[in-house]
Specification:
Trophoblast glycoprotein; two-stranded parallel ribbon; Leucine-rich repeat, LRR (right-handed beta-alpha superhelix); 223 residues; leucine-rich repeat
Length: 223
């Protein structure tokens, strides 16, 4: 309902202050702020925002304060960093988020060291991984920010090629089955008939062995 109201039209274009704190938001819909060019103060603190990927601050050229404290943000990506840096008057508050200090954090750390946009940036610390907990983001360097090792590109390409080959083999096998479906059906019927005859023979011998009269009759016939 909130998002629908914000993107509905021009009714809120003159809005200066938007308070959305403590609403349990996990994310903000795309272009939810696009119709608020006069906004000066935006408070999104104390929610559960995990990402700002779909949020654009580009049109908020008059924005003076952006509160993102006490959310679930793990990293800010390059697009968001560039938009925040492009706002001429903004002050950003990022305290108390569970920052994940791995290789994906490198660009944000570099940005934090260079920008004056973020207030209290010296208080921002890592929450994950365990070995990085409570490390100050401004004190990190590229050697500290690593991710789990990944396969080298050549090996990744080999696996992709193998997957394509296996897919082609599977497609050819299915095509062969389809083209020979009548012969396969006849072969299955022959197997079924052979199995049925075999089982009938077993059943007949079982009946003979179970009935002494039939057993004697069979013995006399052999003589």
């Amino acid at each position: 309902m909130v998002a629908a109201a914000l993107v509905a039209g021009r009714a809120l274009q003159g809005l200066h202050c938007l308070e959305l704190a403590s609403n349990h938001f996990l994310y903000l819909p795309r272009d939810v702020l696009a119709q608020l060019p006069s906004l000066r103060h935006l408070d999104l603190s104390n929610n559960s925002l995990v990402s700002l990927t779909y949020v654009s601050f580009r049109n908020l050229t008059h924005l003076e304060s952006l509160h993102l404290e006490d959310n679930a943000l793990k990293v800010l990506h390059n697009g968001t960093l560039a938009e925040l840096q492009g706002l001429p008057h903004v002050r950003v508050f990022l305290d108390n988020n569970p920052w994940v200090c791995d290789c994906h954090m490198a660009d944000m750390v570099t940005w934090l060291k260079q920008t004056e946009v973020v207030q209290g940036k010296d208080r921002l610390t890592c929450a994950f991984p365990e070995k990085m907990r409570n490390r100050v983001l401004l004190e990190l360097n590229s050697a500290d920010l690593d991710c789990d090792p990944i396969l080298p590109p050549s090996l990744q390409t080999s696996y992709v090629f193998l997957g394509i080959v296996l897919a082609l083999i599977g497609a050819i096998f299915l095509l062969v089955l389809y083209l020979n479906r009548k012969g396969i059906k006849k072969w299955m019927h022959n197997i079924r008939d052979a199995c049925r005859d075999h089982m009938e023979g077993y059943h007949y011998r079982y009946e003979i062995n179970a009935d002494p009269r039939l057993t004697n009759l069979s013995s006399n016939s052999d003589v």
